[in-house]
Here is the input.
Amino acid sequence: MNSNRDPPSKRSRVERMMNRLIFMVLICEICLVLMSAILGGIWQEVEGLDAWYLDISDHVIVTILLDIGTFLVLYSPMVPISLYVTMEFVRVGQAFFIGIV
Here is the structure.
């Protein structure tokens, strides 16, 4: 019975739905980050604010990556979902090691 080439999926409907929802939340967060960054840049240009404390002239790429990371952390207070994702990674890792032996 276990020697089928394509065994049936053992994931429940809830798990499949949660994966889709997590993906949609991630896409929404990325959109929020991009909109916030663009609107923040426009507002800074319109107001003529001098961001002397940021010193972005030398480290533009690093600053952009840090800003995106900051927005992701600020817009995602979803610890249970991140724990769910971590458990999925653990399951994949365990399946990988079981398959090797």
Notes: Helices lie at 13-47, 60-74, 79-100. The chain has a mean pLDDT of 80. The radius of gyration is 21 Å.
